[in-house]
Design brief:
With about 350 residues, the chain is mainly alpha-helical. It contains twelve helices and seven strands. Helix 1 (about 1-10) packs antiparallel against helix 2 (about 15-30), helix 3 (about 55-65) runs antiparallel to helix 4 (about 75-85) and helix 10 packs antiparallel against helix 11 (about 330-345). The model has no long low-confidence stretch (mean pLDDT about 95).
Length: about 350
């Protein structure tokens, strides 16, 4: 999960060679012959867990496009072919938080962007037939995106808003699922939101001014936002249980669903993602505030944590919990936002995607 989202941080820091080495590693561990990527792996490429995330299949394609292919067309084609052929795609066995399957706005954003980037690389490599197939699929998924993931009758707003995901592609249905990580069971999918839909804007699939995007911002702020002395932060999803216990004692893996013994706190990296949206929307002052909040969330050694305390817990709100530190994904996000603020644009937004859907 972290690896494919950390690579753009190398580009933001100006380390193109490092990004190219990272991409080379990804294609070395690409699964043969199907073209997917392991959920995670050892350094030698041996898969560790058995999950599949379609975003992890799509994002190496985006990085290959950003780096100008670099001779990786064979791996790009295998990954794109996997996305197109995968049964029920863009339904994913796991979305980016790894503990749910479904139609995820975030996963669909990465899949659409990946296929558009793959089409551009296909044209460069003389494979126009594959390019047409990738674009046809990307356009179809983008067209169906809201019908799969935007509810019009959810409890948080009288206007439409994006859900974290749907289990059935029916966002107005009261389909229930278990949150996982000791969170509640049988939750109506219309009550579960997260900020991950913002990748639709970052990757150029939807405009920052899209009315459903704008309304979902207000929903997410109200449901997941945490104001602290160090800045404004967000929980990763409704009812999240991935974090320390309520008294601050250590997280325990595989606690029973519905036990409600643990609680996910706020994630500084989400402030960086919100800052990127702010830039896309032209609000540079808000983006700077989010960058500053990320910096203030660092621990004494200057390392960014996975999570900071919210208003429930033994630690001061906005300071690091006992979560993973440093979280490389958060450091990459900080670099990205700083670079984007410097250039006053989303530097890693694939031009091919933006030109197709935003112009």
């Amino acid at each position: 999960m972290t690896s494919t989202r950390s690579r753009p941080g190398l580009l933001a820091a100006g380390d193109r060679a490092g990004a190219e080495r990272a991409l080379q590693f990804l294609f070395e561990v690409q699964q043969k012959p199907d073209g997917s990527f392991p959920q995670n792996s050892r350094v030698d490429g041996t898969p560790v867990w058995e999950g599949l995330q379609l975003d992890e299949v799509a994002l190496p394609i985006v990085l290959a496009y950003q780096l100008g292919d670099g001779g990786h067309w064979s791996g790009v084609r295998k990954a794109a072919d996997f996305l197109v052929a995968y049964p029920q795609a863009p339904f994913t066995p796991q979305e980016r938080w790894e503990n749910q399957s479904g139609y995820s706005p975030n996963t669909i954003a990465t899949a659409v962007a990946g296929l558009v980037c793959a089409a551009e690389l296909a044209v460069r490599n003389g494979d126009t037939a594959s390019a047409r197939r990738y674009l046809t699929t990307a356009d179809a998924w983008r067209a169906a995106l809201k019908s799969w993931t935007v509810t019009t009758n959810g409890p948080y707003s009288s206007r439409p808003y994006f859900l974290r995901l749907t289990k059935d592609g029916k966002p107005d249905a009261g389909t229930t699922y278990d949150i996982g990580d000791s969170g509640p069971t049988g939750v109506d999918q219309r009550r579960v939101v997260d900020p991950s839909f913002l990748d639709l804007v970052r990757l150029g699939v939807l405009k920052a001014s899209d009315p459903d995007v704008v309304n979902t911002l207000s929903v997410v702020d109200a449901q997941l936002g945490v104001r602290t002395p160090n800045g404004f932060f967000w929980h990763r999803a409704s009812f999240d249980g991935f974090g320390e216990k309520l008294d601050g004692s250590q997280w325990e893996y595989n606690l029973p669903g519905g036990s409600l013994l643990t609680r996910g706190r706020a994630w500084p990296l989400l402030s960086g993602e919100r800052g990127e949206y702010d830039i896309a929307a032209g609000d540079f002052a808000a983006a700077r505030r989010n960058l500053a909040a990320m910096a203030r969330a660092a621990g004494p050694g200057g390392m960014l944590p996975e999570q900071v305390w919210d208003r429930q817990g033994p630690g001061a709100p906005g300071t690091p919990t006992f979560s993973a530190t440093p979280l490389t994904w958060a450091h990459a996000q900080y670099l990205r936002l700083a670079r984007n603020l410097d250039e006053r644009r989303i530097t890693e937004q694939p031009a091919a995607v933006a030109e197709r859907y935003l112009d």
